[in-house]
Amino acid sequence: MRHAASVFNDEGTDLPDCGLSARGAAQARALTGHYDLVVVSPLKRARHTLELSRITFSESLTLGCAREVVTDLCDCLPGETFVPETPTSVAARIAELTRLLASWVDTRSVLVISHADLIWNLTAREIGGEQFGQWTDNCEKIELAPERL
């Protein structure tokens, strides 16, 4: 699932680790469901989406491999220097997240709260030499079949 709307999404405010907009906070409060495990990006907009939601869970993990692809200042954690992420680094994080998810999905219901570019890369498949992934709207949930991991 992609996080709720951030101030970057709604206002274009490009600050490190930007938070949710007023619209995003309302979106987050409307989220429900129960999961055995929730994996959340360490970026504030993803963490606040979970914190403001009515999603319940048995366990949650904040994982760096679930954070947004660094393409803008808002994708940086406080104190980080903005350096756009390389495709090699993104691929390594996607591989790590995929490996972890594959080890959990057979025995647990898992929700990942992450970001648009990360989800696109997680769902990307090569067709005719080009990569095609799934773009998501704020708070949009998509389901990945275990065999896709």
Distance between the termini: 16 Å
CATH topology: Rossmann fold
Helix content: 25-40%
The CATH architecture assignment turns out to be 3-Layer(aba) Sandwich
Total of helices: 5
Detail the poorly predicted runs. Answer: none
Order of helices and strands: HHEHEHEHEE
In round numbers, the mean pLDDT is 94
Regarding CATH, which class? Alpha Beta
* Biggest β-sheet description: 3 strands, parallel
Which strands sit side by side, in order, in the main sheet?
A: 2-1-3
- Beta-strand portion reads 15-25%
Number of domains: 1
- The radius of gyration is 15 Å
Say how many strands there are: 5
Q: Briefly note the structural class of the backbone.
A: alpha/beta
Q: Globular, elongated, flat, extended or rod-shaped: what is the shape?
A: globular
Name the features.
149 residues, alpha/beta, Rossmann fold, two-stranded antiparallel sheet, 5 helices, 19% strand, globular
Give a structural overview.
The protein is an alpha/beta fold and 149 residues long. The chain has a single domain (7-148), classed as Rossmann fold, CATH 3.40.50. The protein has helices at residues 7-11, 22-29, 44-52, 87-104, 116-123, and strands spanning 32-40, 54-62, 110-113, 125-127, 130-132. Helix 3 links the parallel strand 1 and strand 2 (54-62). Helix 2 packs across helix 3.
Concise structural overview:
This protein has 149 residues and is α/β, with parallel strands linked by helices. Helix content is 32%, strand content 19%. The protein has helices at residues 7-11, 22-29, 44-52, 87-104, 116-123; strands at 32-40, 54-62, 110-113, 125-127, 130-132.
